[in-house]
Amino acid sequence: MIQILHQNLENGFVSTSKKTWRNWAGTVTNNPQCIFLPNTLEELRDIVKNAKKNGKKIRCAAQGHSWSSLSATKDYFVIVNNLTKVQVQKREKYGWTIIAEAGASIKQIDDTLRNNDPPLTMNSMTVINTLRASGIVSTGAHGAKIQGASVSDELISLQIVTADGELHEFSEEKDPQEMNVARVSLGLLGIIYSVTFRVEPLFNLRMIDTFPLATDWLKPEILKQYYENSDSLEVIYWPFNQGNIDTNKDTIWVKQWIRTEDPATVSQKQITQKSKYDAPIFKYFFTSVYNLTAKYPAITPITSAILYKLVPQRSTKDAIYEAPDAIHFQSCLDIIPLNCLEFTFKVNSDFSNVHIEMLNIMSMITKSAKQGEFPLNSVAEFRINKASKAILASGYDADPNAIYCHIEIITFFGTPGWKEFSAEIANGWIEKYQARPHWGKEWEHVPGIIPYLHTRLSDQIKTFEIVRAKYDPKKIFFDNDSLNRIFYN
Q: Any idea where the FAD-binding PCMH-type domain is (predicted)?
């Protein structure tokens, strides 16, 4: 862990050039000139003013969960994890809301809402609860809720310290266009200080896990039926889950949430106890097996079948959870170092393209296996959301009723052949659907991705740039090579 990341600015900045910051998976490293961990809004403003005075660039990080290089900088690196205040507030227009500083964790937000009188919850959120508020907002993260969009679409307002060192508020009421730029800003407008989400009374979700044959279940009419009858839906394919390379025998893991008035059958205490048991399994056993698999790829079918049966999130019994516990079912996942690529494309009215792409991934996995190659040893999965109104969100669409599929593939960090395999799949999605990457996942290794996004996002970039230039005319926060080439090529 990096030591002393901030000191009184009157004494000058502390050089930490010998310190190296890494994201959670170890896929991105950062060696900035200075690293800061502000504790207050005033310290945050002082850092920005100092950077402006000294001609330095700024990039930020929170939990460090992103796989892409968005946080990398050679100059000033700001980690917002000490900004953790959370406050519930009732507003005349919006009802209950929650205001969270940039570094507040999703678990902290959940706990504050649940302990409120009356108990409250977020309507839609990421499946992991260790992430931080500003990180999920700035990258356009999303959950599995069918009628939800990105988490940023749940925002009412947010406060950002911009290049002048002052705090500016962006909101639906003040300026909807600027707000839709700020919802997913990639850190280019400034440093997020706080976010305000709309929330609702706590509700319960019935979680149903089924494991049908993949070839039987992956059909357009079945996908559409589940979409129309679920609150949330996640479909997971774990390769070689029957211990061989014949995908016709593999099952698909269908995780369905249905809203219910029935009381919860699993308590928060039970979930906490289970997490304490799950964590060491993930950290030691799963990581050890994956390390062995990456070293000896030929054993992948065997190890995959073992892990598939042992993964703690699988359940053969229906259960009812309070919404936060159901939503955040992927506890402990971020303990394991993984590679992850995710792209988003619009769903056909008959769901045929979602069906086709999952079968295509299975086919490519089998083809590689027959050649003695196993570049994907974790999962391929998808979620389906409504379109986002955030200008740079991967699921952005002017039509609020458009439906988007977020499809991702995941493997253990360091697995041979991953980059080539994942790039081939991504290019297929680009060619067929003009798919867009999730900014926080891996995408920069895909050949031709920079010129493609420059063209694909040209209209959105023009809209975004009008607002960005207003708040950061000298590009203090524009210190990322990939984004620079996408925006200006």
A: 28-202
